[in-house]
Write a sequence for this structure.
């Protein structure tokens, strides 16, 4: 899952970005509204964490312009906790908001919920035959037994699970599990697919040659 | 409050009215009483003189006094309480009259009261005494009737006037009650409401307008306070967020020593930022409360300015800005540390908001008895609409830029406070794209003999 963080406080952006990375997200960070908008419009993010007070282009404008083109779930961060401020943010098209100072755990939980809802999933646990993906705990079980997955492997499983029954292209996988700074080539996706098959069963991921991958619900 | 005022007004009104009515009644009554008595006395006097005159005619045969028909009519002996006369001869013997025989002879001529009778006696030419008297019960009864009439009318008028006064006072005080109610509602619920002054074109209208002005000022200061609190809280929330987020992240799992070090460094930066904001807020709060006094020492601004520039040399180097100082010895009466703060704030801003390779010119000179410190930069300038707000607390021309550069948004507010506390002024001139000049004018100290 790929998340964009738009926050002008470099120290804060770094901490939020790192926390999300440790959760297995691919994270891009933008430190002003202009760059944030450009990123959000150019990539398929699973969620955007957007500060409202931004230099150059204010957060609300970023949100409105983004909404003209995309439905990416947006969590706004604001230091102003007035009802009017929150209402304005939500009315501008935000899906959720968090008031600074926030608890990191809450931010992570809200991002997880946004990613889930963005994929049309209400429950945090997705069942795929004998495999169970718990998107809240970020755990995968096979026949009730916890399977140890690397962060990127989990990201791959979650992406496929959230789009179960649908074809997921290799490019899409690449875009969602890597951020801009990752120099990795797209064929590493194949490596992760093969690792996941080893751990969750050969038939868990189907390959559509030349098109992409699919998991069955 | 309004009610007690109404009752007090009414009490005063009642007291005055009671006094007026009482005095009026008393004067009327006593004048009438006196006039009635005078009438009776005049009548009696006329008759006693007539009787005494008759005696002169009758000569010395006092006993033979015979009254003519008109006297009989007048004295009507058969009517109870009618006038009667008595005649004593020179020896004090009762010689005639239709008065009761036991009527004592008056000691001396003149008026006297005898029971409910009024009597007058005169000396006759024969050396005797002639007395005429009559009952004045009728007059007394008339006076008593008048007294009741006066009391009744007075009470009626008093009651009517009180009712009228009560209603009038109520009407006069109604606008006050309305003003009070509105004012109470304003202070309790909604500071933006105002008292309706439309129909109160009197002293109360002035009161209402005065109150409205006061409310407007309170509302404005309240709004300023609210905005200031919101800004201050916002200013503290950002570093607090950084602190919390970094600590939470670091504690999620075991980290390496360099990672911990980085977390601690970030937290230190955030805490320093909070401290700077807190110190500035405290300074302004103390200044607002009037607790902050500026000293009035003799301060030569030249070394203050030069030291400031020297201290900020590292920042100038970092920003690649050249600083030129042109200062002549110039003394003002003031607070050395506060004046240093002014110089530091202005020069720091000039360095921060300058372009790379730019210049800062600091000039200290005397102009018309004022010490003038000007700090000019070659930065991007300040847009016209922003200039008016520049010295407001937390006002930022470009929020992001100044935050990146570490400004708290309070520096210029504090600077202006210090300058004004010294009786000086601060002004800004700017040309977009070319630069900004801040000019501080302070009253120069009066020259003393030990001055160079």
């Amino acid at each position: 899952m790929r998340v964009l963080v738009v926050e002008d406080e470099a120290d804060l952006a770094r901490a939020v970005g790192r926390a999300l990375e440790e959760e297995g997200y691919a994270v891009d960070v933008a430190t002003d509204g202009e760059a944030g908008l450009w990123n959000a419009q150019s990539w398929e993010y699973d969620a955007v964490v957007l500060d409202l007070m931004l230099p150059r282009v204010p957060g609300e404008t970023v949100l409105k312009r983004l909404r003209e083109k995309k439905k990416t779930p947006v969590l706004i961060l604001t230091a102003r906790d007035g009802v009017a401020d929150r209402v304005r943010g939500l009315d501008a098209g935000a899906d959720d908001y968090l008031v600074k100072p926030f608890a990191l755990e809450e931010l992570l939980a809200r991002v997880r919920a946004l990613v889930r809802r963005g994929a049309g999933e209400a429950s945090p646990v997705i069942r795929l035959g004998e495999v169970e993906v718990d998107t809240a705990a970020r755990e995968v079980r096979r026949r009730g037994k916890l399977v140890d997955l690397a962060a990127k492997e989990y990201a791959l499983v979650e992406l496929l699970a959230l789009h179960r029954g649908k074809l997921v292209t290799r490019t899409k996988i690449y875009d969602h599990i890597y951020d801009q700074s990752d120099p990795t080539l797209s064929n590493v996706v194949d490596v992760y697919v093969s690792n996941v098959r080893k751990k969750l069963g050969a038939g868990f991921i189907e390959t559509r040659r030349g098109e992409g991958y699919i998991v069955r619900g | 409050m309004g009610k007690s005022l109404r009752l007090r007004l009414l009490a005063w009104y009642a007291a005055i009215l009671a006094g007026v009515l009482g005095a009026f009644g008393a004067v009327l009554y006593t004048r009438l009483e006196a006039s009635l008595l005078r009438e009776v006395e005049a009548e009696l006097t006329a008759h006693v003189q007539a009787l005494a005159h008759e005696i002169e005619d009758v000569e010395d045969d006092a006993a033979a006094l015979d009254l003519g028909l008109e006297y009989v009519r007048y004295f009507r002996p058969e009517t109870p309480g009618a006038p009667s006369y008595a005649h004593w001869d020179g020896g004090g013997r009762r010689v005639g009259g239709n008065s009761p025989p036991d009527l004592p002879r008056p000691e001396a001529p003149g008026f006297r009261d005898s029971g409910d009778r009024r009597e007058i006696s005169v000396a006759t030419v024969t050396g005797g005494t002639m007395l005429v008297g009559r009952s004045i019960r009728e007059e007394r009864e008339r006076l008593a009737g008048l007294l009741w009439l006066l009391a009744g009318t007075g009470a009626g008028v008093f009651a009517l006037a009180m009712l009228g006064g009560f209603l009038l006072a109520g009407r006069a005080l109604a606008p006050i009650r309305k003003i009070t109610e509105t004012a109470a509602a304003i202070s309790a619920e909604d500071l933006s409401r105002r008292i309706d002054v439309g129909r109160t074109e009197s002293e109360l209208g002035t009161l209402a307008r005065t109150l409205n002005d006061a409310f407007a000022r309170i509302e404005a200061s309240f709004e300023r306070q609210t905005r200031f609190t919101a800004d201050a809280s916002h200013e503290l929330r950002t570093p607090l967020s950084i602190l919390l987020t970094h600590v939470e992240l670091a504690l999620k799992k075991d980290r390496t020593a360099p990672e911990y070090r980085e977390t601690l460094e970030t937290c230190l930066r955030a805490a320093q930022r909070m401290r700077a904001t807190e110190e500035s807020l405290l300074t302004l709060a103390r200044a607002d409360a009037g607790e902050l006094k500026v000293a009035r020492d003799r301060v030569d601004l030249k070394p203050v300015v030069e030291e400031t520039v020297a201290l900020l040399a590292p920042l100038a180097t970092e920003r690649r800005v050249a600083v030129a100082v042109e200062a002549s010895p110039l003394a003002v009466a003031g607070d050395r540390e506060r004046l240093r703060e002014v110089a530091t704030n202005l020069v720091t801003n000039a360095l921060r908001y300058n372009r790379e390779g730019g210049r800062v010119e600091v000039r200290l000179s005397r102009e018309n008895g004022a010490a003038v410190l000007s700090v000019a930069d070659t930065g991007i300038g300040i847009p016209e609409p922003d200039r008016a707000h520049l010295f407001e607390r937390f006002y930022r021309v470009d929020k992001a830029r100044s935050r990146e550069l570490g400004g708290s948004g309070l520096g210029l507010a504090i600077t202006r406070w210090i300058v004004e506390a010294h009786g000086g002024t601060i002004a800004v001139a700017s040309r977009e794209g070319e630069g900004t000049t801040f000019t501080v004018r302070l009253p120069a100290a009066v020259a003393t003999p030990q001055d160079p």
